[in-house]
Amino acid sequence: MPNMEFELGLALPTPNIIKGFDLNNLGLDQPKDMGGLEARNKAARCFSDKSKRSFEQAFGNSEEEYKTKTLLLWSGQPNEEDDHKDQKKRTFSTIDENDAEEVDQVVGWPPIKTWRKKIFQQQHRVGRIGNNRVADTDSGRSIYVKVKMEGVAITRKVDIRLYHSYQTLTNSLITLFARDKKCADDDYTRYILTYLDKEGDWLIAGDIPWQSFIRSVQRLKIIQKICTFWS
Amino acid sequence: MQKKRAYSFPDEVLEHVFSFIQSDKDRNAVSVVCKSWYEIERWCRRKVFIGNCYAVSPKMVIKRFPEVRSIELKGKPHFADFNLVPDGWGGYVLPWIGEMAGAYPWLEEIRLKRMVVTDESLELIAKSFKNFKVLVLFSCEGFSTDGLAAIAAGCKNLSELDLRESEVDDLSGHWLTHFPETCTSLVSLNISCLGSDEVSFSALERLVGRCPNLRSLRLNRAVSLDKIANILCLAPQLVDFGTGNYTTELRPDVLSNLTAAFSSCKELKSLSGFWDVVPAYLPALYSVCSRLTSLNLSYATIHSPEIIKLVSHCSSLQCLLVLDYIEDSGLEALASSCKDLQELRVFPSDPFGVEPNVSLTEKGLVSVSLGCPKLQSVLYFCRRMTNAALVTIAQNCPNFTHFRLCIIEPKTADYMTLEPLDVGFGAIVEHCKDLRRLSLSGLLTDRVFEYIGTYAKKLEMLSVAFAGDSDLGLHHVLSGCESLRKLEIRDCPFGDKALLANAAKLETMRSLWMSSCTVSFGACKLLGQKMHRLNVEVIDETEPPCSRPKSCPVDKLYVYRSISGPRSDMPPFVWTMDEEGTILH
What we know:
The structure holds 2 protein chains of 2 kinds.
Chain A lengths: L36 H11 L7 H4 L4 H5 L46 H11 L8 E3 L7 E7 L6 E4 L6 H13 L12 E6 L5 E3 L5 H7 L2 E6 L7
Parallel strand pairs in A: 2-6
Antiparallel strand pairs in A: 1-2, 2-3, 4-5, 4-6
Chain B lengths: L10 H8 L5 H8 L3 H10 L2 E4 L7 H7 L5 E5 L19 H10 L5 E5 L5 H10 L5 E5 L4 E2 H10 L5 E3 L5 E2 L18 E3 L10 H9 L6 E3 L6 H10 L5 E3 L9 H12 L6 E3 L13 H4 L4 E4 L6 H8 L7 E5 L3 H11 L5 E5 L14 H10 L5 E6 L4 H10 L5 E6 L14 H10 L5 E3 L6 H10 L5 E5 L5 H10 L5 E5 L5 H6 L1 H4 L4 E5 L5 H10 L3 E6 L16 E6 L12 E4 L5 E2 L1
Parallel strand pairs in B: 1-2, 2-3, 3-4, 4-6, 5-7, 6-8, 8-9, 9-10, 10-11, 11-12, 12-13, 13-14, 14-15, 15-16, 16-17, 17-18, 18-19, 19-20
Antiparallel strand pairs in B: 20-22, 21-22, 21-23, 23-24
Helix pairs in contact in B: 1-3, 5-6, 6-7, 9-10, 12-13, 13-14, 14-15, 15-16, 16-17, 17-18
């Protein structure tokens, strides 16, 4: 039933009122090879629906006008005359005005609303600190640090400002990554958290006060505990 | 012909009967039964929904429905959300407010979506409608806090002010102080879209404190966690609450205050907000979790373990919005804890990254489809998919009404078989007979459109990107989808033939959007010339389409049905084709 969003007159609603109205031809030719019997039958109904009054007949447009609406003859062959073969496909690498840093992005893809994109940008913008740490330069609120675990392909990022102690950070990270390695949850005892500090050394997390730690940490890595001389 | 008794009911009786008929569809049906019913119905219609503000003019609406109390208008096409519609395209509400100011002095409700609203419009609303109650601005733009101040000051009986997802110009943080002390009627206030520091918190607290009927309150990011406990204590009757920033210094009293505040809210069913979440404060929510039906964690950068802990308390959850930090493991937990789940939206945390940063795959969605039998509505961003997974999902959830899948990289094939995802989406449309909305992604040929045309008989809205091989794809959709109202297409090899062959179909739809396809300017001209009840708009920001050969494809095409003819507010980069074949501009 056509949508009566706006006034169309007082005739009783006729379903498919304009189905036979095709600007490609007069509706007299059967389209060939539309692909599939179903589609062909559908198309046939579409092109020769004589059982219902057409909109034109009901509302008095002249036969003359109806007949002149031959606009494009199409036999239904897909890509028969490829008019636009020469037309170059639109380039995909348009720069989105809103994020100048991220070139080679397709405009409007992935389909995420602008205000959501702004939140991501705050999380992933490269700050002055360097490639490993990403700071929210506007408010200094978040510090994103890359986290890897031996044997796991995914590199995650965590905002270490949201954790207040080694315990919560370590527990959360190990729980998170342990699943990827298909080992038991909460298997804290087998793994330790290490970090790359400002000087470029890999150290075991936990020795320095938390506040100093978050100022110094560049990257995090979870490794399996091994028997060592000094543990 | 014998006069039937029924038609001799006095008008007042019919009007009384009609007052029970609320839905637009039914009202429209009533109005075409006969002339007298048309007359009676139009005088007692109180609510009007206009899905495209350019489909009809304000004067026409007012002429037909003189006693409207509530109006809903939508402006820009949906793809405007993703920056595909240039600024200045249109969707201005001022002409509507201007006409209604004179004609509907008793207007109570205005709901707008994707429209350009100016401070002038807001001031006019505040001045013109003495009994104004509800203002909803969904994804609108063009106004500032000055306009909001006018609304606050001028609308004495305001019950609802909802600015969801709108873009507001921050001029002053004190617009909230313009609510007079006598204002106690607020039921719903959503200011979550306001940027930082735009809200006077003390004014907000006083407002909340004096509105005993306040049911829904959504704060903005600027409000920090330590302030929430106070607000909740002032309004323990809240049903829907949006926090601000869920972060503050770790202090022992904050957690206990917060926990107490939340547990005093016995009616709380819906939570949102949660910017910058400190995981240590999440346990404050546990007491309300079991009652929650709706949870929006889509700004929360908490990871899977914390999400799982939270969600496993939410046994009544019906609607979850979350980032892909939830990962497959979290979705599995969701599937086992939340058996009443009806709607799930998973947003990408790093949509522009090349490598996946989370372990969220097709497996997560399969788990949810298996564990949540009431699942009806899905929006899922992921990086890989298989036909097999989609078939399983379709078989598990034949009740889907909304299915939107976004595989982040365009034209991604089934990662196991390397085939297109035609069969998978085909299964979705075949099994889900009530499907009303579908968004496609991944590698897709014309075949998927054949499935859609064959099976998706209730489909009303279809979104297509980077899909199909030829015009046949578009033809399948236009000729097969009987209920189609909105079709939006980008970057597909669809051209003139299917469009012209199905020109008449376009009059049965609200609108068609095609961008970066291969529809020629000549075809657009023809369409505009021959179809008098369609507005055919060509959008091109680089140069006028008539300066190129007619066979050149247009950049963007927006076709919509209208009974008010071409609009008069087009910007320089929009052309429309009129009946004489002239290009209006």
